[in-house]
Amino acid sequence: HPACSPALQAARSYARPVTRKKKDIPSQLDDLPPTMLKKDYANLPIVDSMDDVVKRLLSLEMASQKEKMKIKIQQLVEKVRRSPSDNGSFEVQGKLKPGKILIRMFEEHLQRHPKDKNNRRRMLMDVDRRRKLLAYLRRVRFDTFENTCQQLGIQYSLPPPYTRRVTKRWLVKKAFCIKVFQEKQKLKAAEKAAEKLKQRKERQARARAGPERQE
């Protein structure tokens, strides 16, 4: 290759594409062993007599993310279940467990794609929905609420008190509403005074008409 000037070499080095290392983000589904069978085939009686190739096809090694989520949700159900036959309690039927898994999935996705505003909005909606469910469970059954937060690893914080940001527009609107309220109160007081005066005149008229009839 012919020799080139130092400026051209610097330009070539600057134009070279930069190879970025991909972030190794741990997933919540990594703790599931790949040899575990899928949820639909875990309790079949003929599992022990299956071939190794068939077991591998039916295991989580060949499963999709949706099928792995089913196994994860079932594990969380076993943690918060009150008894082995509990299928109707709020913490078993509610959306706390899939909500936790979906929120964690959104967090992992946003760590790889921080500019994805649509999934960020969905994650915030799921967080708000889970907060409402936890607030209801805390109000109804506090002991179950504590156990659920401990088993699912959820840190619940009380909502902050309602505060309004004081702006010039809000102050003008508040002053206008107060003025309208005061004018309304004045009109009501004037109408009430007029009504009392009318009733007094009617009583006086009846009182004068009474002696005239007697005469």
Automatic annotation (TrEMBL):
Q: Which UniProt keywords apply?
A: Mitochondrion, Ribonucleoprotein, Ribosomal protein, Transit peptide
| Subcellular localization, as worded in the UniProt entry | Mitochondrion
Superkingdom? Eukaryota
The cross-references to SUPFAM superfamilies, in alphabetical order and at most eight, read: S15/NS1 RNA-binding domain
Q: Which GO terms describe its biological process?
A: mitochondrial translation
Pfam families registered for this protein in UniProt: Ribosomal_S15
Q: Where is this region: Disordered?
A: 1-31, 192-215
One Gene Ontology MF term: structural constituent of ribosome
Q: Name one GO cellular component term.
A: mitochondrial small ribosomal subunit
What family does this chain come from, according to its entry?
Belongs to the universal ribosomal protein uS15 family.
Designated name of the protein: Small ribosomal subunit protein uS15m
